[in-house]
């Protein structure tokens, strides 16, 4: 079993970064190779000029920056009021991060798929592998959360279980970040979130994917999945008890109306409360055989209702909803010009004017154009750009996945 709490005295809060993303003010505390294999005399470098970056690039592809000693970054990260977006918080740009976010999504989802297979074969899973994958997810959130938030909007029909696990993991990490959790706490939380629904592997597909309403007997079976999840994770290699707690408690409610134990708010641990919100949000915006997906605004309406009814934690829900804002990255919108666009990055100064990728012109013809809506000069003819509608990608035939390269082209 590994420790879920590192020793505080030797703990360094660090973020993995490509050398190309280094900027003056950052403090490099670790390289992708031993210091002794480099000419650097001290085991730690404060980046002062581009020459320092150039020097490091001769020896390394990746480095780790120490957030405590990185003055610039420390200010950026800590100056952010809880629950709000802020440009300064982005360590790297969206176009620099999108590939890494994409690869974190792929490897994490693939790991979940392999876990599901192992469980189906009756084998145990290695929790340490999950934690390693989650550490990449935490790193990408820390570098630029918009990139990986965009990734959570990509949906493929037959991959619900693994995509849901990844999405809940990312949303939970984002919420933990809003609470000021440190990297190791985020990794623990993300691991709990990634594995929260492993118990559903034992629920027959005929029930999980039933197009209609469940009978009370079928619902009883669904209600077994937190207990099954607990058993599966208890028998996992490199047991981490946090995952067991969250798998068992993620359907509990603050007012005691949840299952399987009917715990109340004081009996539910914080990670379980966070995962519950992340889980509900992703479930609501996902299409399932028994119901259509709701859009983002519909989903935050449901979350608010559930928090008001004391099913979800009010404070955590408010913080998450306020972070997501009205148009989170990956939202497909229609503009006053009749164009269709994808939201790429939010604009902290004006949430109604994000940066977008226009993918269809006013007559429905495909195009690729990057627009920063806050720059009024970019309005066409006499029309000011304004978002008029949020659309469901499926309903207007938009496949978000195909636009990853277009984003790189448009922004690059
Ligand atoms: Fe669940």
* Share of residues in helices: 40-55%
Per DSSP, the total helix count is 15
**CATH overall fold name of the largest domain:** Hypothetical protein af1432
Instruction: Count all strands and give the number.
Output: 9
Category from helices, strands and their pairing: alpha+beta
Tell me what you see in this structure:
- The longest helix has 27 residues, at 94-120.
- By secondary structure, the chain is α+β, with helices and mostly antiparallel strands.
- The protein folds into three domains: 8-79, 2-Layer Sandwich (Dna Ligase, domain 1), CATH 3.30.1490; 89-324, Orthogonal Bundle (Hypothetical protein af1432), CATH 1.10.3210.10; 332-411.
- The strands form two sheets. It has a five-stranded antiparallel sheet, with helices on one face. Strands 1-4-2-3 form a four-stranded antiparallel sheet.
- It starts with 13 loop residues before the first strand and ends with a helix.
- α3 crosses α6 (160-178).
- The radius of gyration is 22 Å and the shape is globular.
- The protein is built from 15 helices and nine strands.
- β5 and β6 form a beta hairpin.
- It binds fe (ii) ion.
